[in-house]
Amino acid sequence: MGDWMTVTDPGLSSESKTISQHTSETKMSPSSLYSQQVLCSSIPLSKNVHSFFSAFCTEDNIEQSISYLDQELTTFGFPSLYEESKGKETKRELNIVAVLNCMNELLVLQRKNLLAQENVETQNLKLGSDMDHLQSCYSKLKEQLETSRREMIGLQERDRQLQCKNRNLHQLLKNEKDEVQKLQNIIASRATQYNHDMKRKEREYNKLKERLHQLVMNKKDKKIAMDILNYVGRADGKRGSWRTGKTEARNEDEMYKILLNDYEYRQKQILMENAELKKVLQQMKKEMISLLSPQKKKPRERVDDSTGTVISDVEEDAGELSRESMWDLSCETVREQLTNSIRKQWRILKSHVEKLDNQVSKVHLEGFNDEDVISRQDHEQETEKLELEIQQCKEMIKTQQQLLQQQLATACDDDTTSLLRDCYLLEEKERLKEEWSLFKEQKKNFERERRSFTEAAIRLGLERKAFEEERASWLKQQFLNMTTFDHQNSENVKLFSAFSGSSDQDNLTVHSRQLQKKPHSMSNGSPVCMSKLTKSLPASPSTSDFCQTRSCVSEHSSINVLNITPEDIKPNQVGGECTNQKWSVASRPGSQEGCYSGCSLTYTNSHVEKDDLP
Amino acid sequence: MNFSEVFKLSGLLCKFSPDGKYLASCVQYRLVVRDVNTLQIVQLYTCLDQIQHIEWSADSLFILCAMYKRGLVQVWSLEQPEWHCKIDEGSAGLVASCWSPDGRHILNTTEFHLRITVWSLCTKSVSYIKYPKACLQGTTFTRDGRYMALAERRDCKDYVSIFVCSDWQLLRHFDTDTQDLTGIEWAPNGCVLAVWDSCLEYKVLLYSLDGRLLSAYSAYEWSLGIKSVAWSPSSQFLAVGSYDGKVRILNHVTWKMITEFEHPAAINNPKIVVYKEAEKSPQLGLGCLSFPPPRAGAGPLPTSESKYEIASVPVSLQTLKPVTDRANPKIGIGMLAFSPDSYFLATRNDNVPSAVWVWDIQKLRLFAVLEQLSPVRAFQWDPQQPRLAICTGGSRVYLWSPAGCLSVQVPGEGDFAVLSLCWHLSGDSMALLSKDHFCLCFLETEAAVGTACRQLGGHT
User: Fold this and answer.
1) What is the model's pLDDT at position A374?
2) Would you say residue A124 has pLDDT above 50?
3) Which residues does B239 contact at the CB level (< 8 Å), separation at least 6?
4) CB–CB of B82 and A216 under 8 A?
């Protein structure tokens, strides 16, 4: 980035400088129009530059343009285009090297400028996009600000409203309270009023009542009377007694008696309840002692005196109490003792239970802290796995047991021995098999050898035959050399028949022997016929056809001809002897066919020889 | 369950004798006494005018018939039909008449509560008690019949006088700290007197027999207060029903509140059984009829057209919107009654008039709720066992026991609208009273009924 900046900055400044200079020197330039153009299209393409320069300088104004350029360049700090003149009078010469250097430099500068320009452009683009982004951000933020401002205003408004409402509610509450107060006051006043009125009314009413009473009661109202047949006896059978002070006292006594009875009854009930509660307490205490004493034996050492004394106290108390409870005393001291001892016991029990709880919680916490949470699942899985394994093992054991039992049951003696024997036999069998295979291989080898021997023998026989044949032919040739041509021909035929073994070919040979005599005489140097034959042969490969064709074929034809193209035959005819020899060589080794071909070759050979002979 | 034939009745005046042998009922100016077992008329008395009130004497030997309009009281002897007694209050008039517990004195309250005249049947003596207070429950006798407490009003102050019933001697006389005393009630053990103020103020005062104030209790102020009060038969608890729809239970040791029972219209606790009376469709009724009744020898079973269903909680009960700007608004606990063994308390909240709440006093919690189709008119506990009979002014009577609930149609032509009921002492039968008739309903022995109730309860 820094590099880039350093590169671009001077470029930029220089460009701006050039531009400014261009503008300042437009008048001077001969092609001000073009420079203007340059200014307009601030970054002219190279092609344009070319065309511009081509137009800038013409045949006529070379000098002018050179001087202009020189001027321009010198103002830019380039070396002068002209050679340094020795004298002022002498006309300055254009220094080509300087021009080239200048041009190079200018080009370099141009490139640099272009690069810088590109960079600047990209930067510009970047900055533009950044600018856009920032602008959008800005607008967004502005919007946000606006919305938040609006929200704030709304909230403020709401707050204000709520406050207003709150104030109103407060006011209302106050009013309500006031009203309640007022109403209460009213109620109270009304109540007093009412009571007052009531009292007044009641007084009046009472007065009236009094009056009425006097009127009604005091007057001897005859009507008020009881008309009764005869008085009945009292329900209790006693006679009524006069009201005296005695009776009053008696009534009082009775009342108190009743009250006393009631209280006694209640006291009895309470006593019973108390006794029951005491019993429960005693029992609880005993149980506590029995519960705590064995446990306390250890902690007594730890929690030295306090609990020890307490316990001794408790024991004493227990003794006392058991004594006292027998008489069922309920005096305060006893009660205090009992409650105190129970309290102490209870405290001990509580602390003990708390300790236990703490321990338990500790253990729990520790357990939880370690891996209890995780290991629980694992544990279950593990146990499941183990159970499965156990099951499997059990099954295996069972099957094993069954198998063992079966074995034992079915054949405890025979089978084992046979098995043992079988073991040995198997071993032996194995060995025997190996031997057998070895033997077989040997046998195969032997056979192969025998076959090769027989083949060799056959080959030997064949070779011997061939050799004999050769010898016979050699002898024959020798003999023929001595005898006439006619004899030789017939002999040749005879020979052919003699060494062709197959019966089929016997007939053929017989035929051919007869036939061959005729064409042999007729077809002397008739290659056209042969060529015709070669063409027709592939179309009719049947033996009968072959025979027929053969019959019409000249003595030159042979089975080998099947593979030979007419062109091959031509050179045959051209250079007869050499090709013939080649054939004979080729046909020498081979199977029956080869032999046959060989035979035919020899046969043709003989013909060729015969042809060539004349 | 068997029903007797229907007898004529007027003024809902039908009472079993305290010894349980006889049944007295009134038809206009005639008093009919029947044998409870045979229902044969034992005695028939003719009064001078239409009877407005009857009461058996405690020893079941006499019956008083009050004719308030005429200011007359006639007394009849069961042993001596020819014996007669007529008390004329004359121009003073008569508003209330009752026996003293000994059965030899009659207390007549004159008009305007000018005085109470105590007439003796043994002697010629007549006693007057002045200044009785005109209030709902101004006189109360202890259960043993020894003492009578009387609310009095003198010089705009409330007083309570305690009399010895044997010779009508004033034992104690003390003023009570009440604005306007409304009721007094002895505890069943006869040693504590509960005194409560008018509905304008929540106040319960407890006095000992010797006139000492034991305790005063007030739950709240500035609102309508106590509507009903009931002692538990064991004298251990005092239940106070109030206009705020709550029952507060006070204990007898500290006289403080142990607990308060709210009567919400919505019941959410799944432990509480809510029995809901449901009208049965005819098909269902027939189906139910095919059930053989568990009792042998019962008469033709009446076609009951309603049954109880156990509603699944939460249940919302039907409530009345009370008119609060009138006097005596229909809110609050208007009725409450302890079962004879003090184990249960039955209550009715007046703005949920068709429901009866049954509370378990041992556990101090709601035990069951019965919602009837129509407002509950009256309920009464069986004197022998925790069994509650309810009537709603319809032709059915409803029974609740801890084992279950059942509804029984009262047989007979026409509609027998049960307006009130009263149990026989033994709990074996009860009298069902309608406007013009009454009949007896005989229940089986305890065990049989128990099983029947259980079975029916299970079915309903």
Assistant:
1) 55
2) yes
3) B229, B230, B231, B232, B247, B248, B249, B250, B336, B338, B345, B347
4) no
